[in-house]
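Q: What would this chain look like folded?
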Amino acid sequence: MRVVLAVLWASFAAASLLFSTPCPAGGATPAAVQTQSPPDLRLLEEDTPTALVSLDGHAIFRVRGVSAFPADERARAIEERLRAFARHKARSVDELRLVSQANATLILAGTERIATVLDADASLEHIDRNTLAEVNLARMKEAVERYRADRAPAYLLRHAVYAVIGTLLLAGFVFGVRRLDRWFEHRVEARYGRVLAEFEGRSKSLVRAQWIASVLRWSVSALAMLLVVAGILAWLGFVLELFPWTRPTGVRMVALFTAPLAAFGRDVVAALPGLAFLVVLYAITRALLRFLRMAFSAVQSGSVRFEEFDPDWAEPTYKIVRLLVVVLALVVAYPYVPGSGSEAFKGISLLLGVMFSLGSSSIISNMIAGYTMTYRRAFRRGDLVRVGEAIGFVTNMRLQVTHLRNMRNEEIIVPNSEILGSTVINYTSLGRSEGLMITTTVGIGYETPWRQVESMLLLAAERTTGVRREPKSFVLVTQLGDFCVSYDLYAPIEDPGTRMTTLAALNRNVLDVFNEYGVQIMTPAYEGDPAVPKVVPRDQWYAAPAVAPAGSSRSTAPAE
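A: My prediction, written as C-alpha cells:
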C-alpha cells in the first residue's frame, strides 16, 4: 500500500509540474487558461478575439481586445490586479465599486482600478454597458470571496482528507482491477480451455486454442490497463482541483479529457436526425430487396411466367436490380452520413473513386461480359463448349470468369471478356433435342469404289455404341485430291457429353471395318502404291497384349 501511495503521489507531483505554468510576479495565474465557461460567458461573436478572466481556475467573464492591447494581455492584467486585491484579507469585497464615465465604466477597489467595461464589451453581450459592469462586479466579488475561502485552514484540512480518501479509493480500484484481471486469466484457462480445444479441432488446427486464449488475455489486460490509467487521471484531476494552487492544473486536465468527449457528444446529438433517416432508409431498402428476392425467385422456379423471359435470367436480373437499388440508396443516404461534408471525407471519397476508376476497367468489362453471355444464352452449366483452344464442360458461371472442366479433369478458368470476344462452340445446346453430329475423315484411293467406302463408313457408325439411329448417319465426298478421295462421316450421338469417347469408338470401328474388307486408308502424302495394301489381317486384330472380347471367335495369336 505504501508503494502504491508513493507512486500515486509521485504521479501527482509530476502532473502538477507538467500541467502547471510559472506564475508571474505576485503569484498571478496566466489569464489564457481556456476552461469550460458557463453558457452566459460563451463567445457570442465568433470573429471577435476574446480572452477569459478567471481566478483559481473559476471563470468570471470575457473581455475583448484590440491590436495594441490584445485580449489575453488585457485579461492577464485584470487577473493580476484582482488577485492582488484578494490576497489582502483585511480589505472588504465591499470596496469593489463601479464608477461610470462617458465612454467606460470603471470597477475600482477603493481608488485602484481593477477593470474597465467598454461599450465594445457590452456590444458582445448585446446588453447595456452599465448592466454588464454590474454583472461583472458581482462575479468578481464572488470570485474574491471564493479565493479567500479556499485558503482557509479548515477548508484546506477538509480537502486534504478528501484527497486521502480519494487516494485510498484509487488504490482499492487498482487492486480490484488487478484481481479481476488475474481471475479472468485463470477462468479462461480453467473453464474455457476445453471449449477452445474443441474449436481448434473443428477448425482443423487453422486457429490455435492458445492463440485465442492469448488474444483474450491480452484484450482483458489492455482493458484493465486502460481502466487503471483512466482511474489515475480521474484521481489526479480530483485531487488537483481540491486545492486552490493546483486547481488551474486540475481544470486543464479535466478539460483535456472531457472536451473531446463533449465534442463527440455534441456531434452525436447533431447527427441524430440524420441517423434516424438512415435507419428508416435502411429498413425500406431491406424490405424492397426482400420483395425483389421473392419476386425473382418465383420467376426462377416457374411459378410466375413472362413471355420472352427465360427463367434462367431471373438470378442475374435480380443481381442487377439489387445493385441499382443499393446504389440509389447510397446516393440518397450520402448527405445524411455524419461527417460526409468534411474535407477528410471528401478526400477519401475522391481517392477511392480514382483507385476504382484506375483498377476496375478489366473487372467491369468482365462483369458486363458475364451478364451479356447470360442474356445471349451462349451456354449453361453442364454444357460442353469450346472457347478458343479450350474444350470442356461448364461447371460454374461467375460475373468475372467462367469455369470449364476438360476430359483430363483439369479446371480451365476463362475471363468473361475473352469469351465475349471469341467464337464459342456449344456442343450441347442443339444436341439435347436434335442430337450432336460427330465427324471423322478418311482418305481412300481412287481404285476403291466410292459406294463401297460409304457403305463401310455407315457400317462403322452402326457398330458404334452411342450413335443414334435417327436421324441417320451420312457420308459426304468432300474432296477429290491429287492422290485420294476424302470422305467425311457424320454420325449423330445420343449424349453430347460423350462426344470425345464416342468419336474415339467410331474411329476404332472405322479401322476395323476397313481392315476387315481389305481397304487401305490412304494419306494425302505418298509417292506410289505399295506392292501389298497397308491393312491389318483379321487374325492379327487382337495381337498381344490385346485381349479379344468374351465370346469372340477371332484369333488372338500374333502374326507370323
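Confidence is low (pLDDT under 50) at residues 1-46, 554-560.
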